[in-house]
Amino acid sequence: MAPHPLSLALAALLVASAVQAAPQLTPTSYLSYVPDLAGNAVFGTLYAAASIALWAHTVRWRSWHAVVLPIATTTEALGWFLRIPLRQEQNQDNRGLYIAYYLFLVLSPAGFLAYCYIIYGRLISAADPELIGRAGLKAKSRYSFIPPRLVARFFVISDICTFLIQAAGGGLQTGGNYDQTQLGNKVFLAGVSGQGASYVLFTLLTIVAHIRLCREEPRYAPWHALHNKTARLFVLLYVASIGILVRSGMRIVEMAQGYGGQLYSHEIYTFTLDGLPLIVAVGVFAIWYHHPLVLATQGDAEQRAAELGLKRERGASPSSPTEMSESRAAVRTPESEVA
After folding, report:
1. Quick one: which of 45, 123, 271, 305 has the most CB atoms within 10 Å?
2. Phi, psi torsion values for 20, nearest 5 degrees
3. Residue 175 Rama label (left phi>0; alpha psi -120 to 50; beta)
4. Mean pLDDT of 227-239
5. Region 48-74: what's the mean pLDDT?
6. pTM for this structure?
């Protein structure tokens, strides 16, 4: 059955009105494209949902030490939502709106990095039986080549420096003349490159600590993540780190190319290389929050410490990983098997 001519005319009228209503890019726009309504709404909603979940976790577990993550996720969501008004032709050259969105979107991820630093310190401190009951920031762990309680402080200070450099660069980028904008690009590139290099070092620190821990406790290997909470927390850190490093690499290349480059002038890269990897990075912690995993790790370490203490009471000193493993095996072996 052929469609009624009136239906075709109505459909054509609707399409024409939609095309006419679609905002057009103005010559004075700060962006090289009209932001996509659906894409920015989706990412804003995803980050808002993650933020709500993370705030709920923080309040439930009273983990105020990690409040930086829900704060950063909230501001990240605001950054995505603020891109939507920039679609309108009258707002495309709105400097205040552009600065607000840009700073929220490019600076909020610094909070994601800080959260990972905090989790690392608490994870290693909880996993090392020798740190149980030991206070002090400088307490060393045989798993970490930086004292675990100093890791967050060391890397957060580094990130604050790179954050301020990026903020200064972002402010210059929104200046009113070409020379100031180009200078802002270089300053921001220096900041984001320093931040990326710092996080690469942190990732290597995490991998080394995990390898050392697995030599003593094979059950903490990544493939045991479904059943072992310590292994799961390490895997979550790796997933978050991959997302953070992808986003850092994208921003470094974007600033190196400049405003006329491929990455800056095409929104698809902002979605796929910035929004997507970072929502995965924070989303995994919205689903599997760190605090109960750290508590489980600490409980496991206390059990290991008790087992090692039993061997010391028998007159031995488990000074090597092999001896420690033998000590745990001896304690866990049923009496019937020993007999």
Report:
1. 123
2. -65, -35
3. beta
4. 97
5. 98
6. 0.84
CA distances from 309 to 141, 235, 306, 338 (A): 18, 30, 5, 20
Angstrom distance (rounded) from CA 187 to CA 172: 8
Phi and psi at residue 85, to the nearest 5°: -60, -25
> How many C-beta atoms surround the C-beta of residue 27 within 10 A?
6
Is the CB of residue 49 less than 8 Å from the CB of residue 74?
no
Residue partners of 182: CB distance under 8 A and separation at least 6: 258
In this structure, what token pair is assigned to residue 124? 């290693």
In tens, the pLDDT along 117-166 reads 999 999 999 999 988 877 678 889 999 999 999 999 999 999 999 989 98
CA 90 to chain centre: 34
Distance CA 120, CA 233 (A): 9
